[in-house]
Amino acid sequence: MKNCHILLVDDEQSELDAYSLLLTSMGIKHVVTESDSRRVSARLGTMQAPIVFLDLNMPFMTGQDVLRELKVKHPQVPVIIITANSEIETAVECLRLGAHDYLVKPIDLKMFSSALRNALEISLLRNEVMSLKGISFAATGRKHPAFDRIVTRNPAMLSIFQYIESIAASGMPTLILGETGSGKELIAKAIHDISGVTGEYVVVDVSGLDDTLFADTLFGHTKGAYTGAEGTRSGLIEKAAGGTIFLDEIGDLSEVSQVKLLRLLQENIFYPLGSDKPKQCQARIITAANKDLTMLAGQEGEFRMDLYYRLSTHLIRLPPLRERREDIPALVGFLAAEAAAAMHRQTPAVSERAMELLLNHPFWGNIRELKAYIADAVARCEQGLITDNLIAERLTGRVAGGTAPAAEAASLTTIFGRFPTLEELTEYAVGEALANAENNQSQAARLLGISRQALNKRLKKKG
Predict the structure, then answer these.
(1) What is the domain partition of the chain in residue ranges?
(2) CATH 3.40.50.2300, applies to 5-133
(3) CATH topology of 5-133 equal to that of 145-319?
(4) Topology of domain 322-396, per CATH?
(5) pLDDT by residue (tens digit) across 130-160?
């Protein structure tokens, strides 16, 4: 324990001095203090196998915000929370976010020492396992070939690469959270490729599957299981045996389908429709969602908390493109070359003004949105150059330097004949979303920014 490296984070100098003295009296030589929560991640980059003691109530960034950042950028670092807040909800939330332990002030010396010893043992074991696997958490710049199609130099993304290399071979369920178009399927495929499994990589978008179709797709059926089942059909779980099955948009599953998936994860067996003979699941399960499942499971109660914990044995949160703008120039070049090759054209250059427009765009559709703009620009560009006009037409609906047409949208009083109530506005928005989505509830829910279950409940309530 004497040679371990400790980082103490607290905005009160008296607290830092007290804990430093306590650690020194325990014979620990390497103690670093930090009073600015914004500098914690940078501090860790210079320390060898550190352990963090983190206060919750700090200016600039709260302890929980720092914890979230560390679990993305330094997932291998044990974090022990120290706070005067004894509320059980706060403790549970910190542990859910990845804290190693939670201590309430005033700190008991035995509890402090025990928490430190446990964290040190976990840290040493983790580093030993990583060494045996040939994996380093240091920023060496080396990248596994499985990441070649993921264009990035963003630190958070590179940390995710390192995390993937450490968990790929575990075979445990992995949950990938990220906005639509942020690259979740590419990450899932990278996990499969690095894991070294010999079976197939199977992708299933579960958002449009009802309960029966979900079970039939995953588990298969026997002859006569239902009307039209004229023969036996294996499900995709069997197809992915010895490999990986990737279930996308898992947040749209109904409660019945959630129970079926939970049973599969708990018992590692499944029953084809119409059969009472169990089959063994031999596929690694990776899931993804474009919603915060912790919110759906907690406050909204639309996703089972026990299922969330089963799915998120390993958890990856992908940053949106607007949080990794340094990747946009390289992505533009990659996507332009890809589109040009598909169209049998020379890869065009991109003007400085066009690149500037792209760098300043929020990209709510993430990389998928950028890909659409670049493919369109490659198809229409002349003389081997993507100009700002081609980009501006897609971003703003007008030529660069031009003026936007006058708005012709009807006012609310015109639509309703009077100023509507909030409930009337909600019903109108639901109707418009369903019309735009051609009555596809999953797509309509995405347009409204709610879950499919929430939309379905509203529609049932209104008959």
Answers:
(1) 5-133, 145-319, 322-396, 412-461
(2) yes
(3) yes
(4) Helicase, Ruva Protein; domain 3 (1.10.8)
(5) 544 444 444 444 578 899 999 998 888 988 9
| Per-residue b or e along 282-318, where b marks 16 or more CB atoms closer than 10 Å to that residue's CB | ebbbbbbbbbebbebbeeeebbbeebbebbbebbbeb
Tell me the C-alpha distance between 292 and 315, whole Å: 12
Locate all alpha helices (DSSP H) within 39-97, ordered by sequence: 40-44, 63-73, 88-97
Model confidence pTM above 0.70: no
DSSP conformation letters of 329-383: HHHHHHHHHHHHHHTT-PPPEE-HHHHHHHHT---TTHHHHHHHHHHHHHHH-BT
Q: Per DSSP, what are the bridge partners of residue 221?
A: 233, 273
Architecture of the CATH domain 145-319: 3-Layer(aba) Sandwich (3.40)
Nearest CA to 400 among 336, 335, 352? 352
Reference 252, options 218, 303, 203; nearest CA is 303
How far is the C-alpha of 388 from the C-alpha of 391, rounded, in Å? 5
Phi, psi angles (nearest 5°) of residue 414: -70, -40
| Cβ 289 vs Cβ 253: under 8 Å | no
Only one residue has tokens 């150059």, namely: 385
